[in-house]
Amino acid sequence: MELDDRKIIILKTIIKNYLETGEPVGSRTISKYSGLNLSSATIRNEMSDLEEMGYIIQPHTSAGRIPSDKGYRFYVDSIMEDSDRKVTEATELMVQRVDKLEMLLKQLVKLLAVDTNYAALISGPSLTENRIKYLQLSSPSRYKLLLILVLEGNIIKNEVISIEEDLDHETVMNLTILINNVISGLSLKEITPKMLTSLMVQSGEHSATAKSIIDAVADMIETDVESREIFTSGATNIFKYPELTDADKASKLISAFEEQDALKELVEEVSNISEDEGGSGLQVYLGGEGPVRNMQDCSLVTANYELGDGMRGVIGVIGPKRMDYEKVLDTMKNLISQLDKAYKRNDGDTR
Amino acid sequence: MELDDRKIIILKTIIKNYLETGEPVGSRTISKYSGLNLSSATIRNEMSDLEEMGYIIQPHTSAGRIPSDKGYRFYVDSIMEDSDRKVTEATELMVQRVDKLEMLLKQLVKLLAVDTNYAALISGPSLTENRIKYLQLSSPSRYKLLLILVLEGNIIKNEVISIEEDLDHETVMNLTILINNVISGLSLKEITPKMLTSLMVQSGEHSATAKSIIDAVADMIETDVESREIFTSGATNIFKYPELTDADKASKLISAFEEQDALKELVEEVSNISEDEGGSGLQVYLGGEGPVRNMQDCSLVTANYELGDGMRGVIGVIGPKRMDYEKVLDTMKNLISQLDKAYKRNDGDTR
DNA sequence: GTTAGCACTCTGATCTCTTGATTGCTAACA
DNA sequence: TGTTAGCAATCAAGAGATCAGAGTGCTAAC
């Protein structure tokens, strides 16, 4: 059997209707709203075909039809028009004026959640390919050392570590220079253990301290790779969709958002997948597909953003399976391009 | 009518039973489990009295009784024994080894949520009375300045600002010294505008830059006061309590946790109140009392912690009205004392 | 290929009935 | 005077029973 134009129109009508209402769609409704001018009986015949072909499902004998996963997939991949909606001005305004990266991401994720009415997440950029500008040391109190790592894009990481000896100001300065000679200009993942051991030798009597510092820097890098921060917003939006509202599902989903662990895995997985594919990397995971396996009734839409210099991150929206995919995809495309612009405007300066 | 011993025992039995089960308690149950050896008929008479006095309520004619707010209050204030439970070893272990304040707080709040099975929150310490050790400046790229503010207790704040002129290394150093002369050793709230303007005069040709720096520092302080970070955990625990599980209530509560704004107000309010009272500042807010006014079915238990040097913060637990107050109060006392110990162990060094 | 008509199915809302828990009252008892 | 047994009354919650509405599939006619 073939999927002719008429069947496609009917399928589309069913899906659109179902996305809006969440109720199974009957033949009569389609007969009225598809624009085909066919009686409900004819539609019924076609629907019977569509069901046989696996695009739609009947929850029970006397109900209308709802899209199957195959149906959704077809819709997302083939039928959906990419409308070019206007950029909401709010987005543009917002992205312009925020300069602190963390703030920017927090606001963006909130915007995304509010715009779409689903749950949104955004991962901090991966910094492993990002170069070190310099490391700054100082001693806030005896036997303590404050490390400040400045990366390209003016991203700052700091940590206080304990050391064995009590260093005077001058020694701290010297160590700073020594270490910077080795590591500045490198990307985080270019720092090798060998490099670091050679450094230890150079630092002579302070080699123990140098080792501590090196370990801490390695740790900062490690931490970044393993657990980059994830910002979320709008988890409670799921209460707007009755099919996700029962205690069990809601609790699962919101726990996932609260605990972050699951989200980290998700981000990990998504960024791996989409690196292979290149491109904008917009991805739609339906129902239990891919990273959302244990959330049967949810779908996930993801995209990658890049802030130049290899600072890549992931944006995602989680909502009910019957989410407004068009709108979500649009909003995300929009956001990414804004992010791109905003970054290019702010950066491009190196010392 | 007087609240004699027998009535108190009965009231206590009712409340304990209700806290466990969440079901109204009938006369027959009490007759069996109160240890009073009275028939249900006698208990009924007493219950009738207790109801008249306002300590208990009958949800409907043929149901048992549940505690009224007055009953809860009485229980919390008067009846409850403070049991001295043992410190769970987990707590002790955990508190020992974490050195980064943020990590510590995150772990503590999680522990609190897991231990109690309610939603927990903990505010970062207020830093306004905390002294500045020093300010460190450096220039990560042209027309940018990185400010690092080191406070007592080795708390680090950083910010990158844009400036008008392109400063060389030496100038940055000089400015650093100049500013540190003025502000180091002061607490955040001791920095006055006057002080800062005098500084601007001293900095001569770089006064514009000095002003930017000053503004940024003021901003960092401001930000801290207005919006100190709040860590939360266990918001989804509320799904364990059927009376909070309906979409409406759950959504409200979890939104509050997600958006933080409401929590900030709450922390604000609580820390004001309890400063007046002094002491451990353990507080129980029932039902709609105090800061939880729009959560009719929830109770809030709060406490203050202090890490020396005026670094004060708030811990809180939100759960159903019928929460296990004893356990929660115990856990919180415990946590506060652990926090105190841990801090004393780690600190005490100034340079 | 399309349509009208009709019997059939299933859900969900509504109603009734029953059960069980609990009370309040009264009268008897210590 | 306080305590208790007994009993009628009340109510919520659950189990069936019933009914309307929505929708389908099939058949026969156009």
SSE topology:
The structure is a homodimer of 351-residue chains.
Chain A: H1 5-21, H2 27-33, H3 40-52, E1 56-57, E2 66-67, H4 69-79, H5 89-97, H6 101-116, E3 119-123, E4 132-138, E5 144-151, E6 155-162, H7 169-183, H8 193-202, H9 207-226, E7 230-233, H10 247-259, H11 261-277, E8 283-285, E9 298-306, E10 312-320, H12 325-346
Antiparallel strand pairs in A: 1-2, 3-7, 3-10, 4-5, 5-6, 8-9, 9-10
The structure holds a DNA duplex (30 and 30 nucleotides).
Description:
2 copies of one chain form a homodimer. The first copy, chain A, is an alpha+beta fold and 351 residues long. Chain A folds into 3 domains: 5-79, Winged helix-like DNA-binding domain superfamily/Winged helix DNA-binding domain (Arc Repressor Mutant, subunit A, Orthogonal Bundle), CATH 1.10.10.10; 89-126 and 229-350, GAF domain (Beta-Lactamase, 2-Layer Sandwich); 132-226, Enolase-like, domain 1 (2-Layer Sandwich). Chain A has 12 helices and 10 strands. The first copy, chain A, has helices spanning 5-21, 27-33, 40-52, 69-79, 89-97, 101-116, 169-183, 193-202, 207-226, 247-259, 261-277, 325-346; strands at 56-57, 66-67, 119-123, 132-138, 144-151, 155-162, 230-233, 283-285, 298-306, 312-320. In chain A, the strands form 3 sheets. In chain A, strands 7-3-10-9-8 form a 5-stranded antiparallel sheet, with helices on both faces. In chain A, a hairpin with a 3-residue loop joins strand 5 (144-151) and strand 6. In chain A, helix 2 packs across helix 3 (40-52) and helix 8 packs antiparallel against helix 9 (207-226). The longest helix of chain A has 22 residues, at 325-346. The first copy, chain A, is elongated, with a radius of gyration of 26 Å. The N and C termini of chain A lie far apart (66 Å). The relative contact order of chain A is 0.13. At the A-B interface, strand 4, strand 5, strand 6 and helix 10 of A face strand 4, strand 5, strand 6 and helix 10 of B. Chain A binds a DNA duplex (30 and 30 nucleotides) through helix 3.
